[in-house]
Design a protein that fits this description.
mainly alpha, AhpD-like, 2 domains
Length: about 180
Amino acid sequence: MARAAALKPEQVPADSKPTLDMFTKNIGFTPNMMATFAQSPIAFNAWAALLLSLSKALDVKTRDSIGLAVSEVNGCNYCLTVHSFTAEHLAKLPANEIILARKGHGSDPKRDAAVQFARKVIETRGHVGDADLKAVRDAGHTDANVMEIVALVAMYSLTNFFNNVFDPEKDFPAVTPAGSV
């Protein structure tokens, strides 16, 4: 049960409205998470700016795979439904790749290294070892890419934490619990 109500269109603060309207237009509907997050124009607009900037980082398959891995570690069921949906429909990842990403891997070696590194970052709170950094670099990621991976982990964690705290009603197809995949 949601711990904060998703705002109705007439309740959205004026400073959140342009950002929420942009997402609604691009997605085709207003996700409950965003309609809830919009209650704080400061937090919502800061998150949206980060999301839009990071949408240029890496490639969509890697970004969605990182989102799946981080959301799995953080136990965010709302984000797992969103990232599973976008991974399938936008990134065109097959079901077995979505499951692999949730487990912290990818079938492509470069993506696999990025997802493993992202999972290590979230599990260790950033206290990765030299070998972890070497592995992601050896797979072909530049230091700029590594910084983008860290930023993606932070951004996905923000939405994970938000959704775990406020538990918005899910509006994307349900996913199988990780223990069953």
